[in-house]
Amino acid sequence: LILVAFTVMETWIFPCMTKTVGLEVPTSNMKALAVLRVIRLVRIMRLVKLLHHLPELLVIIKGIIVAIKAISLVFMLLGVIIYVGAIVFRMLLEDTSMGRERFSSVFHAMGTLLL
Known about the structure:
The chain is an all-alpha fold. Helices cover about 85% and strands about 0% of the residues.
């Protein structure tokens, strides 16, 4: 419960106070917050111990990691295809009304092709 309170304070309360009131946080206090972050890491390590007792959960997590790798590769390939298509359409439609409206720059062309 104490770790949750520290996390909420570090994430929400301290930034809101510094933005609204204009408080300056000394660097010595930041070192104390770093200690709290280490305590949070210890809590995560307890979760790793739990994975050894539940091998099915470990299999699911490994599957999710493999899927994230594959999906990120698909997104990168999609981005390259959209980028190349945007350059081609930008050059082909340069002097047309459609080109001025939808393909005025490569960035706008990518947005048009993505939608």
